[in-house]
Amino acid sequence: MTTLLAFTVLVALVGLERIAELVVSTRNAAWSRERGGVETGLGHFPFMVVLHIGLLVGALVEAWVRRPDVPSLLAWSMLALVLASQALRWWCIATLGRRWNTRVIVVPGLAPVRSGPYRFLSHPNYVAVVVEGVALPLVHAAWITAVVFTVLNAGLLAVRIRAEDAALATLPRTTLPPTTETAGA
């Protein structure tokens, strides 16, 4: 199998992974809304969708049109980063459980999650997005796509993180177990 064909398969697999995320996200967003979840940050969401599709399409188009020579060290090291970013992304999804989705929806009364990767970073999923945005195109030396995505994603993340932080600021800092005083007994 040629390296270009292998890269195409990799990008297709990442695309399938995105579809799996959307299935999980749709289910979880419904769960949040059923519990009074409030969505914010609607304005940037369509741009985010287009940007992430653009990453996959751009990487493939650039690889097939430019057909760059790809040093093995670059390809393998970037593939390792792509796999690490996927692992981090799914660790975030598993940690947030039903509360994870691709939108900014918070359920009133639920404290922010502070376990898993959220013990270390406020927004670990965006670390995965940034790493993948650079690494995936560079698996096949598609540096133009990597640069364009990174620049546009930086602007998007500035808006997205502000929206998430504002939404999370409305939640309680901790959730206390019910006591006789708080349970009304």
From TrEMBL:
Keywords: Membrane, Methyltransferase, Transferase, Transmembrane, Transmembrane helix
Primary subcellular site in the record, as a coarse category: membrane
GO biological process, one term: methylation
Taxonomic superkingdom: Bacteria
Location in the cell: Membrane
Record membrane topology: Multi-pass membrane protein
Pfam families: ICMT
Transmembrane segments: 44-61, 73-91, 126-152
Molecular function, one GO term: methyltransferase activity
Protein name in the entry: Isoprenylcysteine carboxyl methyltransferase family protein
